[in-house]
Amino acid sequence: MFGLKLCFYQRLAISLVVVFSMVLSIFFAASVHLQRVTQNEAEQRLHLNLAEHLVQDNPLLQTGVYDYEALKNLFHTLMVMGPNFEFYYLDPNGKVLTYSSEFGPLARDQVELEPILEMLDGSAALPLVGQDPRDAGGEKIFSVAPVYNSQGLQGYIYVIIGGQVFDSIIAGLNRSSAMQQFGLFAVAALIFLLVALLVLFKNFTRPMKILSDDMDRVRAADFDKSVMQQARKLWKRESHNEVHRLGCAFNDMLEHIDTQFERLQQTDIQRRILLADLSHDLRTPLANLQGYIETLDIHNDTLSSDERKRFVDISLKNARNLKHLIDQIFELAYLEAGQVTMSRESFSLGELIHDVSAKFAMQIEAKSLTMNIEFGQQDVFVNTDIGKLERVLTNLIDNAIRHTDSGGTITLAVIQNDNTVRVEIKDTGNGISQNELAFIFDARYQASNQCKDSKIHAGLGLAICKKLTQLLNSELSVTSEVGKGTCFSLNLALESSPSS
């Protein structure tokens, strides 16, 4: 039996049977104890004045006790008539002076007076027990009355209610009755448990079985989308039942897995398209490079020095374009794979912007552009990866220069807020149409305002900037209007300036 694998319902049922049996035993023991206490109280109240009547009605006790043998015979006669009682005569200190010796010697010949005095005082709560002379450690309910003579207190008549004979008879009857009652009660309880509780718990565990079946079916189908969509939808999200909440969590997990599958499929499609496009972009400079190098190799002796230099310059330009494109591909791949480490440090944002803008001084001058740098009243310090932020600013400024016509203006603005600082790169170039703004950060996307120059542009620059900005815990946003220019902006966490 113990080798069998029990389901949740079976384990719960067995546990409940064991717990219910324990509770039943405790309840039965408490019930027997309460019944015994009630019976003792009733008997003690019924025979409370027994000793007093014995003293008042017996000539031996009315004026004091002098003949202990006669008193012993009296006790014997009374016990024959009422075997439920045991009679003892105690001195004022509680020592047993005489008793009926029918049942042999006593276990102790001294009785504590505290319960006796408490009973005589009349303030005792019943049932009140006193020491049983025939049992060294036992206590019984009793009746007691003082015996006086002309000299004062002579002793006590101490009557044990429910003697040994009575106890042996009652114990046998109680055992038989208790076994019968317990047996009937246990059978009735088990029948109720099997018929009522097990049906109830079956209903309780039914949702768990349904959820388990759903999980088994989805796992067996290897998370097939059609099978996942057939998973039961009976779960109530706001229910207090833990199984319902677990079922909702399972459904949420299936929906998340389904969404992830769709994203993976879409990513795979985009990856294939990207590889095809990049292959085309790589093929052009590679073919040009190969063509000019082959020309140099074949006609090297017949080419003039000027032609040879022109072919070499063209080959170098194609090699640089090819390297730039490969560098961008690898950079985007590393960013998307999360294989990038962050190196945060505190630095002056103003110094970084001045250093980055200085790299474009020759391009600005060659294209007759104006570059403005706008700061607040004081420099600000940020704590982030300076290399990645420089890469973002470099790409955005290079884009702004490329898309701004001669005579235009490029503005680098730093706007300080309460806890952040916003960096803006604005230009007065040709702008981007509103229906294209949502796609300009996608890899390989090139807007219709794409400018032609001597370099190959694969549409990866803004995608790289977007990924780098996310690593900086920021968000790259854009606003633009065709013919009026474009503004890229990002927010950085502000850090207080270090003390001098």
TrEMBL record:
It comes from Alteromonas arenosi. Its EC number is 2.7.13.3. It is found in: Membrane. The keyword Phosphoprotein applies. Its main location: membrane. The chain crosses the membrane at residues 12-34, 182-201. Keywords: ATP-binding, Kinase, Membrane, Nucleotide-binding, Phosphoprotein, Transferase, Transmembrane, Transmembrane helix, Two-component regulatory system. GO terms for molecular function: ATP binding. Residues 202-262 form the HAMP domain. It catalyses: ATP + protein L-histidine = ADP + protein N-phospho-L-histidine. It comes from the Bacteria. InterPro entries: HAMP_dom, HATPase_C_sf, HATPase_dom, His_kinase_dom, HisK_dim/P_dom, HisK_dim/P_sf, Sensor_HK_Regulatory, Sig_transdc_His_kin-like_C. This is histidine kinase. Residues 277-496 form the Histidine kinase domain. It holds the Pfam family HisKA.
